[in-house]
Design brief:
Layout (H helix, E strand, L loop, with lengths): L12 H11 L4 E5 L4 H12 L3 E6 L4 H5 L3 E4 L5 H7 L5 E4 L10 H21 L4 E5 L11 E4 L12 H15 L6 E7 L2 E2 L6 H10 L5 E2 L5 E2 L2 E2 H15 L9 E5 L5 E2 H10 L9 E2 L1 H18 L9 H8 L2 E3 L2 H7 L7 H13 L2
Helix pairs in contact: 1-8, 2-8, 5-6, 10-11
């Protein structure tokens, strides 16, 4: 099936060059979570380079089928389904996960830990020798400032939600699985955003329109984010790095960002400016936000509510602390550089939002 370019995602020249180089090393790529924001972007880049792609997701995604992706509907918690779907592949991007800041441990443990275990086991059974895992910086987040930290930062001793905890377990499983016959690495992209973002951008806009968007804490703290093209590009570079015989990246985790930390207020207001919404200026003390999150969590647990509280302890800490990263390791080992700046990304975001 011929490749059809999505209107809002156009791989840059550097991304196309990297993907073409990858195409000389692999023939068939398997992507879990292919229907997600990042998964779709990776599919687009691979298909533009003529690489055969099998996507695995729990729902139907006709737009990916039109792109030439062979879509298989299934659950990563099913070892048999994964094993069958991964036949004939020589590279895996494990992007799928249960994300969020609220929910029961089992809701996160099964897909994030058991699902990852099944992916690793299927790679070994089918002798697939390269696996790129999409992790998160939350694996090191202990609720305090993270200012320019690198990969030497240890995993958190205590987590404020099950998402971060289960992703940390899964990441360690992936890195431990690295061997001569299965090369693995993990990427930790932070706050992915851009056109068609179903998470950060719509949430910011909706809360601002409802008058419920507030800054947390007295001080503006620096945070990292990553534009969708850069996140996809980092995955292509990671896969390419794993194909090299003397790959130094095997068994390692890498922080990935736009390498442009800015205050949370600045980031939020840049998003709001894309739809001509006035800047957010209202603030709530960090201690009050944390207390509110703790109280709401207790109430939701007592009532058995499944929907996410408006505030949680994790969100309160995330919004009131620094979290930006030293990405020198990714630059050195993966040759990663952000190819789309935040300002250029915001310009593209504005165009996409105003087309709706």
């Amino acid at each position: 099936m011929p490749f059809k370019q999505p209107s809002l995602f156009q791989p840059s020249q550097l991304m196309q060059i990297a993907a073409k180089e990858l195409a000389s090393e692999v023939t068939h790529v398997f992507i879990t979570g292919a229907g997600g924001f990042l998964g779709k972007a990776i599919c687009c880049v691979l298909r533009a380079a003529g690489i055969k792609v099998t996507g695995f997701a729990r729902s139907d995604y006709p737009e990916l089928s039109k792109m030439g992706v062979t879509m298989i509907k299934g659950d990563i918690c099913s070892p048999a389904a994964l094993l069958d779907a991964m036949q004939g592949c020589d590279l895996v991007f494990h992007v799928a996960s249960k994300a969020g800041v609220w929910g029961a441990k089992s809701d996160y443990y099964q897909p994030n830990v058991e699902g990852t275990k099944h992916v690793i086991e299927s790679c070994k059974t089918l002798r697939i020798n390269r696996l790129v895992y999409t992790s998160t910086p939350s694996v090191t987040f202990a609720g305090v400032d993270e200012e320019g930290i690198d990969e030497s930062q240890p995993y958190a001793q205590k987590y404020l939600n099950y998402y971060a905890q289960t992703k940390a377990i899964a990441e360690q499983m992936v890195l431990k699985a690295n061997s001569d016959t299965l090369k693995t690495l993990a990427l930790r992209p932070h706050l992915i955003w851009g056109p068609d973002d179903p998470h950060l951008v719509p949430r910011v806009i909706q809360r601002a329109k409802a008058g419920r968007l507030k800054l947390v804490g007295k001080q503006d703290k620096l945070v990292d984010s990553i534009y969708i093209d850069n996140a996809a590009y980092s995955h292509i570079l990671a896969a390419l790095s794993l194909t090299r015989s003397a790959a130094v990246c095997g068994g390692k985790a890498y922080f990935i960002s736009n390498d442009q930390p800015m205050t949370m207020a600045n980031m939020l207001n840049k998003i709001l400016a894309c739809v001509n919404i006035a800047p957010v200026t209202k603030r709530v003390p960090a201690s009050i936000a944390y207390a509110m999150g703790s109280a709401l969590e207790s109430i939701y647990l007592a009532l058995g509510k499944k929907n996410e509280p408006i505030m949680t302890r994790f969100v309160a800490r995330q919004l009131s602390t620094c979290h930006y990263y030293n990405i020198d390791a990714a630059k050195k080992d993966l040759n990663y550089r952000a190819i789309i700046s935040i300002d250029e990304g915001m310009a593209r975001l504005k165009v996409s939002l105003n087309k709706r």
